[in-house]
Amino acid sequence: MTIGDLNVYPNFDYSINAHKVLNVRDGDIELLLKTYSITRKALDDMITSIREWYEKQPHLPQGQLHDRMILGHLIVRGFSVEQCKEKIDNYFASLERMPDLLAGRSPLSPNMGKYLREGYWVMPPMKTIDNHRVVIFRIINPDMVVLDAAKLGFLMGDYRLFNETSNGDHWVFDFSNATLNHALQFNPMLIANIYYHITSCYALKLKGIHLINLPTFGHSILALFKKIMKSKHVSRLHLYEGFESIFKVLPKEVFPKDMGGTANVTVKEICDNWCDALLSDTWRNFYTHQEKYFKVDENKRISASKIGDTFGVEGSFRKLDLD
């Protein structure tokens, strides 16, 4: 089996602009395999095993699992086959179980298109020396809709699932322009589902969560997040005053030059490259396809779903102790 066989979604060129957006290069996968002491044959066997498992799950949408999706999950889970199976199940199931967060996503929607072009999410193509990705979120306009900003982040996450070759993330949140209106848009269910989808569906390895200029009212939202976060993620939370302070822990070489970094790229160039990818016919069609065909039939499930037991819809309020 060859990695990336288009055995699902005919003519789906998922890697559009990946070299510019994520600095994906030939040989990236081989370097990862070497890091984990895995041969190409062993990887092919893993993908075959996961596909065979998937085809035996009557509740999952058959014919919708691309080999590169499997590889994406394997990379972020350190090539653990069993963890990969669990995350794939969670990924498909969450699309229906969290419709407020995951349905109706389109890079053409007014808000998501605006946030994409203006750089609410800035994801530099350069990675750290440890092969970690830096993801920057910043609030530009006081009228920002939190839900739409989160939806855009997950659109970008789907693109990364098909193309990413990093093995860990540092997330940087700049709250310099945050308002009380933004804080009031959060509720326990939204908080729980955002965290669940990041950690249990994409299953990203969060190496650091860096909060810059968090206002006083933002600490109550942070307290809610901490109630549902894994202890290891809480330990990786760091607060800073002033954007420059982030360069004490993350390399300037990764950040665009108009954000104080030394990388030879601007925020606009980064955003333009992301627009070229997500607004392409290929990826717009994928998001439409995803909403139409990524359907899970829970009545056919032969094993218990873990979504409701953790941070998903049913578990949101049970998990959060709001007294």
What does this structure look like?
By secondary structure, the chain is α/β, with parallel strands linked by helices. The chain has a single domain (18-323), classed as 3-Layer(aba) Sandwich (Phosphatidylinositol Transfer Protein Sec14p). Helices cover 46% and strands 8% of the residues. It has a five-stranded mixed beta sheet. Strand 2, helix 8 (146-163) and strand 3 (169-174) form a beta-alpha-beta unit. Helix 4 (67-76) crosses helix 5, helix 7 (110-118) packs across helix 8 and helix 7 (110-118) runs antiparallel to helix 13 (267-278). The model is unreliable at 1-7 and 311-323 (pLDDT under 50). Residues 172-267 form the CRAL-TRIO domain. This is CRAL-TRIO domain-containing protein. Pfam families: CRAL_TRIO.
